[in-house]
Amino acid sequence: MDIFKRLEAELRIKRKSQRTIDNYLINVKQFHKFIEKDLDKVTEDDIKQYISYLMSKKYSASSINIALASLRFLYDKVLKLNIMSEIESQPIGDKLPTILSKDEIKRLLGALNNKKHKILLSLMYDSGLRVSEVVSLKKVDLELDDNSIMVKGGKGNKDRLSRLSDILVKQLREYLPKTGESPYVFPGRNGHISVSLAQKIMKQTAKKAGIKKNVYCHTLRHSFATHLLEDGVDIRIIQKLLGHSRLDTTQIYTNVSTKQLKKVKSPLDSI
User: Fold this and answer.
1) Number of structural domains in the chain
2) Is 221 a known active-site residue?
3) Catalytic site residue 189?
4) Which residues span the domain enclosing 233?
5) Which pTM value belongs to this model?
6) Tell me: the pLDDT tens digits for 92-142?
7) Which entry of 130, 192, 222, 227 is annotated as an active-site residue?
8) Do 132 and 253 reside in the same domain of the chain?
9) Same structural domain for residues 149 and 50?
10) Residue 6's pLDDT is what?
11) Does 45 map to a domain?
């Protein structure tokens, strides 16, 4: 069995999500192409050279850390070579996520005439879905009578329950009969539409709506969480809806909620 097949097999055994498997394989293949030698002959200096190359190409700290995580899994778990112990991850600053205001969300969705695309973006905002979750969503995962949605195979392969608004339930009832026999909510050539197509739809729609911010599909998930927090929803409930295993991951939204900040009374006013 070649190294790439061994890597994929080990990732599946560890129950990693398909997205993680794809990312790790892509990163290891890119490293292999760069280093031009057998992967089991690689040294610590080879990996440092690659990281230096990624930095010279202005890769973000997050992207470099994903590359490092991929290589660390390969060498620690698959090849059992101790060559990563002295290589540290890149420090990531406290960069806050981009958030769309409710008015911007309204403009974004209002700029869409295609019902399929409108429901696609609406679901990410309405239910806090990741783009990988929404494109692979199946019709059987929808409980329209109960205004709920079962999100399957999320990050870490954890299923979770989220909810659907009355507006979106009505739109889905009109849209789903037009999707034919496909089991997917958003059918495409290879089963369901791709993540890259969803990102393209998001970018093009934001431009059409006159939104100047640099936005991605994940921006809708960030906006979902922030707006719930601003509306007074308990952060632990938001944690459950997002599928975060740790509360501190969800707490970043307390730093971007300007509405909550404006509610705080100055201590001077109480003197």
Assistant:
1) 2
2) yes
3) no
4) 102-261
5) 0.65
6) 655 667 889 999 999 999 999 999 999 999 999 999 999 989 999 999 999
7) 130
8) yes
9) no
10) 93
11) yes
